[in-house]
Amino acid sequence: MHTAINKYSLVCNATKNMLCGCFKRRSSHFVYHPERISSELGKTSKKNMYQAINSAMDLVLSKDPNSVVFGEDVGFGGVFRCTSGLRERYGEDRVFNTPLCEQGIVGFGIGLAVAGTTAIAEIQFADYMFPALDQLVNEAAKYRYRSGNLFDCGKLTVRTPCSAVGHGGLYHSQSPESFYAHSPGLKIVMPRSAQTAKGLLLSCVRDPNPCIFFEPKIMYRLAVDDVPDDDYELPLGKADVLIEGKDITLIGWGTQVHVLLEVAEIANKDFGISCEVIDLVTILPWDKQTVTKSVKKTGRAIVSHEAPLTGGFGAEISASIQEDCFLHLESPIRRVTGYDTPFPHVFEQFYLPNKWKCLQAIKELINY
Amino acid sequence: MLSSTISANIEESLLQGVNKVNCTSSLDINEPSLNSPVPIFSILNDTGDILSNCKSIIIPENNELIKMYKSMVLLSIMDKILYESQRQGRISFYMTNEGEEAAQIGSAAGLHVNDLVYAQYREAGVLLFRGYTPEKFMNQCFGNVDDLGKGKQMPVHYGSKNHNFVTLSSPLTTQLPQAVGSAYSFKRLKINRCTIVYFGEGAASEGDAHAAFNFASTLDCPIIFFCRNNGYAISTPANEQYRGDGIVSRGPGYGIATIRVDGNDILAVYNAIIKAREYVMNNTRPLILEAMTYRRGHHSTSDDSTAYRSKDEIKEWLDKNPIIRFKRLLEKNNLWNDQNEVEYANETKKQLMQSFTIASKKNKPNWREMFNDVYHEIPDNLLEQMNSLEDHISKYSDHYPKE
């Protein structure tokens, strides 16, 4: 299905990114905005996103003896290193490889959760999660509902790397969150940073519903924050207003949040436009209240995501905004997204909803 | 042309993927037909006699034998009532267990009550044997207020936490990898709890069957894969489903032990399950148990099996009725007679009809139940949708069922 060569070349390039700042600049389409240090959460250390995720799983494994971590190549640390050192610390019966079979990994994880074990499954790339679609959509999402709450698999969390990485092409770049967003019963989360990744992953693991945790893979090494060493949870189903503004609301999640943050700075500096930037954080169930409150204030909205336009989650948000904020709108709602093509390899810079496309959209809506 | 030949000495293989293996200079194709079919273990013949060459078999105590027999009869009477009620439009759907009573009751009797069961959909007998009452089956089929599943699923999608029977779903074979996960959980907790998962030979064609076999084997999971090879997947006969030697032939490929048993012989199934359970628990390994049986009824109430199989074929299997076979054994041992049969059948029918009437008169759950149990908590979007339906119903109440 997927070749080892592709996987490892991505990992190697990610390492290069760390080692060579100039390469990083050229290969990424955004500027990472580190999180502010939150003093409430105690002592912090500099960690990138994969280390923050590793730290979250380390905490789970150390505190909950009936918890396991598994997936393809997870034993030696995972191709993106998220599970490194865990097998050595917690034993090979708790951190282990599975055969190469995504439907098996998710089905197995559901069964662990049904039996009361905290299950953290890794699907090596979100692009390869589709063989598990049946287990996720027909099984995990519906377990509680169909049994009248006799059985559930809330102890299952599926982690998977997603989104653009600079050179991933069709099958190492997709952002398939909207496929899963059509499945009531699942919670779908995508962090924007190292700091939020740790707190949100801990919340997903402990949430009594099955969760899919999408990890924007370009940030594994690139996103470095002051990450609290201790255990902390960030709320699911709650969007974060990162910049307050009055002229237009920009909504995104994952990597795209950083594109929007940079665009907001440019729009403000160069054109005096005040943007409100919202990280949706949780795709399902999503925080409509925060979004509509913001759009009622600004009167304009752009939703931006890497996934294709048609049927993307931006469509859902746009529809809700027009329904709830109709009389407050000063312009149409705009979606700035990937195109309705497969994710292209050498055309990635043309495909992505980058800051210039977002900036053009902002100007058009302000002057509408 | 090569001027010299390389000697084919036996060496420790450097290959990761095989055990110690010989090399050979002979280029042969390994035809599967060279392996003879796996024999079928059986105890009872058609006349209800124990085969003379059966050694060290376990025969349950007399009261257990009678309980097993009564469960088979009860299952078959419940099937008739619910099948007919669907035909009369009282319930929306039904699936009978006809012909497979021995496989179900025999396996249930050989398990421990706290062993976790993942079923497909034709295992009502397992749940019945564990004490799930006919009333509960009927509540589920009507989807009434007392249905444990709260009216969410079609008839026959049973489940009970108290009976360690995971609620079924309609997608085929999804339960297999899940059962493996539960088996792994129990193994780690070091509790003496076995997992059994039931499926048909048709379901074994799904990718999830492969996933489950391979995970169970590589992760050393104590699980019994119980295949009810009943000859048909809806209309597709087993010989169009696979070309190997049934489902047991999958075992060696995955490194999994197997047993093949006569699924219409309740004592054979009972003994096979006891042995299988002992094997999986003592070795912390999976086992595939293939019960050869025959689905004598239609696939479901949406199916007419005479469209794809002959009446003669069905009749031939009627003579191999697992209930009659077992009854003959009991009769020969003076544990059952015709009078017992008539009394038990009449009493059972009477009770079941009473349960049926009660279940049919119970209300459906409140429509608000539709929004419950999607999540552990009701999120805002669902509250909003529930309120909007509330508002709509208040304006159009004539067009909706009354509570």
Brief characterization of the structure:
The complex is a heterodimer of chains A (368) and B (403). By secondary structure, chain A is α/β, with parallel strands linked by helices.
Question: At the fourth CATH level, what is the homologous superfamily of the largest domain in chain A?
Answer: Thiamin diphosphate (ThDP)-binding fold, Pyr/PP domains
State the end-to-end distance of chain B: 88 Å
Q: What integer value in Å does the Rg of chain A equal?
A: 20 Å
- Helices of chain B, by number, come to 12
Helix content class of chain A: 25-40%
| Terminal CA distance of chain A | 47 Å
* Class by SSE composition of chain B: alpha/beta
Question: What is the number of independent domains of chain A?
Answer: 2
Percentage of residues in strands of chain A: 15-25%
Write down the overall geometry of chain A. globular
Main sheet record of chain A: 7 strands, mixed
Rg over C-alpha atoms of chain B, rounded to the nearest angstrom:
25 Å
Q: State the low-pLDDT regions of chain B, or none.
A: none
Quick one: CATH class of the largest domain in chain A? Alpha Beta
Domain Transketolase-like pyrimidine-binding (chain A): 47-222
Catalytic activity (chain A): N(6)-[(R)-lipoyl]-L-lysyl-[protein] + 3-methyl-2-oxobutanoate + H(+) = N(6)-[(R)-S(8)-2-methylpropanoyldihydrolipoyl]-L-lysyl-[protein] + CO2
Protein name (chain A): 2-oxoisovalerate dehydrogenase subunit beta, mitochondrial
Main location (chain A): mitochondrion
Provide a descriptive summary of the structure in words.
The complex is a heterodimer of chains A (368) and B (403). Chain A has 368 residues and is an alpha/beta fold. Chain A has 2 domains: 44-228, Thiamin diphosphate (ThDP)-binding fold, Pyr/PP domains (Rossmann fold, 3-Layer(aba) Sandwich), CATH 3.40.50.970; 240-367, Rossmann fold (3-Layer(aba) Sandwich), CATH 3.40.50.920. Chain A is built from 15 helices and 14 strands. Chain A has helices at residues 4-19, 21-27, 49-63, 86-90, 102-114, 133-139, 143-146, 177-181, 194-206, 219-222, 256-271, 288-298, 313-325, 348-351, 355-366; strands at residues 44-48, 67-71, 95-97, 118-122, 156-162, 187-189, 211-216, 224-228, 240-243, 248-252, 275-279, 282-284, 301-308, 334-338. In chain A, helix 13 (313-325) links the parallel strand 13 (301-308) and strand 14. In chain A, helix 12 (288-298) packs across helix 13 (313-325). The relative contact order of chain A is 0.13. Residues 1-26 of chain A have low confidence and may be disordered. Chain B has 403 residues and is α/β, with parallel strands linked by helices. In chain B, helix 5 runs parallel beside helix 6 (207-218). Chain B starts with 61 loop residues before the first helix and ends in an 8-residue tail after the last helix. In chain B, 44% of the residues are buried. The mean pLDDT of chain B is 94. The chains are: A alpha/beta (368), B alpha/beta (403).
